[in-house]
Amino acid sequence: MSNTIVANDLRKRYGDVNAVDGVSLTVEAGEFFGILGPNGAGKTTTLEIIEGLRQADAGEISVFGQSPWPRNPALLPRMGVQLQASAFFERLTAREQLRTFGSLYGVPGRKADEMLEVVGLSDKADTQVEKLSGGQAQRLSIACALVHEPELVFLDEPTAALDPQARRNLWDVLRAINTDGRTVVLTTHYMDEAEVLCDRVAIMDHGRILRSGAPAALVRGLEAAARVSVASGVMNADEARTLPGADEVTDDEVSLTISTRDAPKVVAALAERGALEGVQIKGATLEDVFLDLTGREYRA
């Protein structure tokens, strides 16, 4: 597969802050690529450099084999950008908004209208954007980024501040975008979102990429303990601590949870004692990898 994006040693500084400090990455054609990181990690600045919205202080960036900076008119029709905060024209309906964005790329009105169906907003076509819910406005923002059928789509925290149902519905839209053959680059704070959607992710902090790879591979590489839980009361905590393979044991009077690096041995021991009621086994997740790399301290 060919590389759609190649970034090498990108750097961007604001005063004493290294917003982007030597970022190198590649994104293959047709890939769903995620950039993860806490607030202030440099995700948005990195994305803006790749999009050609901001000039890097140093480093090289290539999109479809061309430099996006200075603003490259040849690249603009091939890219779709959904920013963290999207601004719409006041008092226009969803259909009018989308047709206006489409007209900038010479997209016929009827073709633009079809995008409303793609993002599930056909029934809101005549609704003014001010009256759309948060999730509906986000879907309209994505529709505006897709109206000219770009090959490469950038999504900067597209599900931020959405309720769980709206997030899940938007995931379906994003999967469809990628399945249709488009390359997608996503920034997000939600680890479950990245695990579900992304082929590969890069975890950033303090302007640097700390680790990258397929989510499942990053989780396996952590070698974190698994958690085996059974219903509280089937065994007391002291007895659980004597089980072969048990490391730590907690009991919150709902579940007895055993932390272990040998889950099969623990489960076998529980089975011998007839203590498998409500058994659940949970391994490490991408969130564990994220916290292991970036720490657990609060970020403003």
UniProtKB/TrEMBL annotation:
Keywords: Antibiotic resistance, ATP-binding, Cell membrane, Membrane, Nucleotide-binding, Translocase, Transport. Coiled coil: none annotated. The keyword Transport applies. GO terms for cellular component: plasma membrane. The keyword Ribonucleoprotein does not apply. GO terms for biological process: response to antibiotic. GO terms for molecular function: ATP binding; ATP hydrolysis activity. It is a peripheral membrane protein. It is found in: Cell membrane. Residues 5-231 form the ABC transporter domain. Belongs to the ABC transporter superfamily. This is ABC transporter ATP-binding protein.
